[in-house]
Amino acid sequence: MADVARRALAFAKQKGASGCEVEVSAAVGQSVTVRRGEVETVEYNRDKGLGITVYFGKRRGNASTSDLAPDAVERTVEAACAIARHTAEDEAAGLPDRERLYEGTPPDLDLFHPWGLEVEEAIEVARRSEAAALAVDKRITNSEGATVSSYDSDFILANSLGFLDGFPNSKSSIGCGVVAEEKGGMQRDYWYTTHRNPAKLDAAESVGRIAGERAIRRLGARKLSTLEAPVIFEANLAGSLIAHFVAAASGSSLYRESSFLIDRLGTQVFSPGVRIVEDPHMPGELASGYYDAEGVATSRRTVVDAGVLEGWFLSSYSARKLGLATTGNAGGNHNLLIEPGPDDFEGLLRRMGKGLLVTDLMGQGVNPVTGDYSRGAVGFWVEGGRIRFPVEEITIAGNLLDMFKGIVAVGNDVLVRGSKHTGSILVDRMTIAGD
Questions:
Q1: pLDDT greater than 90 at residue 228
Q2: Across residues 423-429, what is the average pLDDT?
Q3: Would you state the pLDDT for residue 364?
Q4: Does 155 lie in the same domain as 88?
Q5: Using one digit for the tens of pLDDT, what is the confidence trace for 111-137?
Q6: Residues 182, 73 share a domain
Q7: How far is 39 from 371, CA to CA, in rounded Å?
Q8: pLDDT at 435
Q9: What is the mean pLDDT of residues 59-74?
Q10: With bands split at pLDDT 50, 70 and 90, how would you rate the model's confidence at 212?
């Protein structure tokens, strides 16, 4: 792949490009789904590709191919050059600043742990997970299936400023979903576990058991009357709130003026108890890396401190559009650590006293410009600090700025399934629309 990247860069220079960056990648994946004990799907994929961006001054063009043969690579470079020659100039276009690129050979971040499961072994893992779910209770009458998947990839990132590096990485997961039925009412729920290292996945039986228990506890769900009350976002959903923050604090939203956080750098955006740290260098995590998608060096930094917004998420391009410096976030945020408080999940319930615990969300009713938030939800009604009964067919609504500033506590029940490391989040007040 490094040889392919070098050839692409050399040919782009030969065609007159003033700058060039290229990524060459290869990946292999396997996914097996078992439903009611029978194999439903076996999927296997093997991919490779090259993506190239060339610059002619401030004109930019890009093209891609899945054929890495020399003549195919040359045709792809020619296509990118032709596009660049016919595009308008963009003053923000160009390679990253040379001094911001990562230099040297980065240490191993322990991101590559291929599972190496044979199909028959994956089928057995999926069967064990589903069987554990179905064994939870006789009221579990159907299954959405259990899926076991693994994905291994490798890449080389290079540019004409001299950067050339890459590393292999892997990701594995086990998931299960089931349907429970009682007195004509049906409910479904699911659970899954994912990690770079399959040895750190939850046991297949544990995943299935949790999925079954979650489906059973939703039986007998009721509606609520419309009211205002505190809301706890369960840990597996709390990351979605942080994702809305990241989207609003990202350069593309800011320079397009499509963010509710415009002009709020250095101001109180969250409640004073909230602290968010970005740490790209955590070994084994899903969003770790010593450089971003442009080769810009990454670093640990505080994004939110005592509720005050301290930094954006910028690539070189979006930073230039805003007259700022890149933060090493081309390709997205790295590991975001939302500092937990002393309360575990039960402690959060006691602190809330009376309100709504949200365990699943539906719909995409979030306005990124105003921050208005409205999504369908299911969960449980809490009184006296204890779960009393399941609820369904409700909508929770508010404004993200008000919700962020209204965060009362972050639980220490931290769940990591991606780039957001957070426990359950208690918000002081939201509108709950029901009957």
A1: yes
A2: 98
A3: 86
A4: yes
A5: 999 999 999 999 999 999 999 999 999
A6: yes
A7: 44
A8: 83
A9: 97
A10: very high
pTM of the model: 0.95
Q: For 258-268, what is the mean pLDDT?
A: 97
Which residues form the domain of 339?
A: 221-435
Report how far residue 415's alpha carbon sits from residue 424's, in angstroms, rounded to the nearest whole number.
9
Number of domains in the chain: 2
Q: Is 270 exposed, middle or buried (0-12, 13-18, 19+ CB in 10 A)?
A: buried
Whether residues 83 and 102 fall in one domain? yes
pLDDT recorded at residue 72: 97
